[in-house]
């Protein structure tokens, strides 16, 4: 029986510098911050973050409650020359709490976004994290832009129309609670409506819809924006509805442009 003796080949050992260079050149892991946690640990972490977020909201609302009178005067500025009444005992107290709650929520929004990112990002891949962070930042910015747009254009236009419509018949004496409900709801609805480009961007990046398909449905978008302008606005005046529906249509076109840009840049990236 013939036995072949194969000589053993000694592999060259790598130096510490070469090992470090090899680690640097290795492809990054798909889930770099992945941590093995049980369901109970996830729930406990979620509970802790919710409690911290709630604490920040309550603290911010308390600070706003201290200076609630300047905030109420600021919200009263669009209603030029209108007298506000307290129609029930304690009405202004409940209005102050409501305004402080909205103000505390607005002030704590950056911290709430931070807590959401800290809870979600460790379980996402690198591609998903590159998508989530800009989307959340853009969502926050668009929400603030929507509030500014409502404050600058929608609220004065709506109040001007409503006051002028019956000025020769009735004297405008408004309840402070009804007025602030109107203004706060209009600000919130406009901020939510301004999230449309972010939704379109996410759908385009994930490949669920393209810009051509969006443009083909422009008739439905115009109809939907008109319905949204009628539903989201707390008043029934046509001025506010036209302004809000026009803004939603322009935001839809902006989202189409973002999706087209993503589709145009994707071949270059790949």
Q: Which key terms come to mind for this protein?
A:
270 residues; mainly alpha; two-stranded parallel sheet; 2 strands; disordered N terminus
First and last CA, distance: 58 Å
Q: Oligomerization state of this entry?
A: single chain
Strand content: under 5%
- The structure class reads mainly alpha
Could you tell me the radius of gyration in angstroms? 28 Å
Query: Count of DSSP helices?
Result: 11
Helix fraction bin: over 70%
In summary, what is this structure?
With 270 residues, this protein is mostly helical. The chain has eleven helices and two strands; from the N terminus they run αααβαααβααααα.
Overview of the molecule:
- It is a single chain.
- The chain is 73% helix and 2% strand.
- It is mostly helical.
- It has one domain.
- The chain has a two-stranded parallel sheet.
- It is flat and about 80 Å long.
- 20% of the residues are buried.
